[in-house]
Design goal:
With about 425 residues, this protein is an alpha/beta fold. The chain contains 14 helices and 17 strands. Strand 8, helix 5 and strand 9 form a beta-alpha-beta unit. The longest helix is centred in the last third of the chain and has 46 residues.
Length: about 425
């Protein structure tokens, strides 16, 4: 991940033929920045890179493609619950909840009979006291921003406004998890269980801003964020959807390289090298055991052959030249996908992740084995059913030449 130039070349291989290639290295840099942001080094030496959960893509129609950027923090499509709450806070103390701040209603239908006016007021006061107790438990840790996945009652909002606290409600669980990751806060289930260690203090700036017709809440400038938001801008939704698909491909390539930083040359060089070694191995084997080696080698040569065909090159000549190169040990040579000529993939800068290549070879072999097994089963079932039909039909036809074959089979089954 430290060698940024090599990483850019690898991801460029993925995006080179797609729509976003016309925008230069914009998508490549966005993908690399996002993957680096969400990379977590575990204590046992492993790397955890969950781009699906912690690298959220937000698409906002309007603006230009060049306005796309990676936010070192989280952006959510939410506004504050009360107009008098603060819209911008520097270095906020953030409290995250997944419980409601409204008075709980009974699970079953409940009837209350009140005989005098004082009992009704006592009932309302009991609800207000419960909400005030919940808010007081939260205010004990002196938060600046309170976020909950459930609702916030009007009375709770009133107490928060009096204390100068900004509140957000009905946040998605996934968004809450990402905010916890960038702020260092812990999601708490009951306000009474709040501790100082549960408060998030890593966020540099909290602000609510209007983009287009919607209000968005930003948690940015965070200290060592392990989640990010990729903000995509473009002229229309169709363009943004295509850009998002290309960006997802780029992020997955960067993630594969980060998890297993081993590369192979592209352009059919790997397939040709494996085919060359298999042919050498086949020559050292006697009898029919050598044929699987030759057949697999022929199958692998389909990749460079197809590349040469797509370029309109002389396929036979190019394949012969490429075999000669690999026989001499020049294993990084392949087909240039633009000119159709042979080229050294190391100089051309065409690389592929090792994990992708190994997985494609495993899948190809397993699929072939599975198809061969299925073919055996189908062939066996077909033969047995033909025998059954032949025996039944013969018995029926033998008794009466004018008998209906279908009725004869039915008579046999009844008998």
């Amino acid at each position: 991940l430290d060698d940024n130039d090599t990483l850019i070349k690898i991801v460029q291989t993925c995006v080179g033929t797609k729509y976003t290639s016309r925008f230069g290295n914009l998508m490549v840099n966005l993908a690399i920045d996002a993957v680096k942001c969400v990379t977590v080094n575990m204590p046992d030496g492993r790397k955890e890179i969950d781009v699906k959960r912690y690298a959220k893509v937000e698409k906002l129609p309007g603006g230009e493609i060049d306005d796309c950027r990676v936010l070192k923090g989280v952006m959510v499509n939410k506004d504050i619950t009360h107009p008098k709450m603060r819209r911008k806070i520097q270095n906020p103390r953030v409290v995250l909840l997944d419980c409601t701040l409204e008075y709980k209603k009974g699970e079953s239908q409940t009837n209350v009979e009140i005989s005098n006016e004082g009992d009704w007021e006592a009932l309302l006061k009991q609800e207000e006291d419960w909400i005030k107790q919940q808010v007081d438990d939260i205010l004990e840790v002196k938060p600046d921003v309170v976020i909950t996945e459930k609702g916030i009652s009007d009375l709770a909002q009133h107490y928060f406004v009096k204390a100068g606290v900004t509140a957000l409600r009905r946040l998605r669980k996934t968004d809450n998890n990402r905010i916890a990751r960038v702020t260092g806060a812990t999601i708490v289930h009951r306000p009474s269980e709040l501790k100082e260690s549960d408060v998030g203090t890593k966020c540099g700036c909290f602000m609510v801003d209007k983009i287009g017709d919607d209000y968005f809440t930003f948690f940015v400038d965070c200290e060592d964020p392990k989640a990010c938001t990729v903000l995509l801008r473009g002229p229309s939704k169709d363009v943004l959807n295509e850009v998002e698909r290309n960006l997802q491909d780029c992020m997955l390539v960067a993630r594969n390289v980060a998890l297993d930083p081993k590369l192979l040359p592209g352009g059919g060089a790997v397939e040709m090298s494996i085919a060359s070694q298999l042919r050498k191995e086949a020559m050292a084997i006697q009898g029919t055991a050598k044929w699987p080696f030759s057949v697999v080698a022929d199958a692998l040569e389909v990749i460079p052959r197809t590349l040469a065909q797509n370029c309109g090159a002389d396929v036979v000549r190019r394949m012969t030249e490429l075999r000669a190169k690999h026989a001499n040990g020049e294993s990084t040579w392949g087909i240039n996908g633009e000119t159709g000529k042979l080229a050294d993939m190391k100089e051309l800068g065409v690389w592929e992740p090792l994990v992708v290549k190994t997985q494609s070879l495993k899948t190809a072999v397993e699929s072939a084995c599975m198809l061969l097994r299925i073919d055996d089963v189908v062939a066996g079932a077909k033969k047995s059913s033909d025998k059954g039909r032949g025996g039944g039909g013969g018995g029926g036809m033998g008794g009466d030449p004018d008998a209906d074959p279908e009725n004869a089979d039915e008579d046999d089954r009844i008998g």
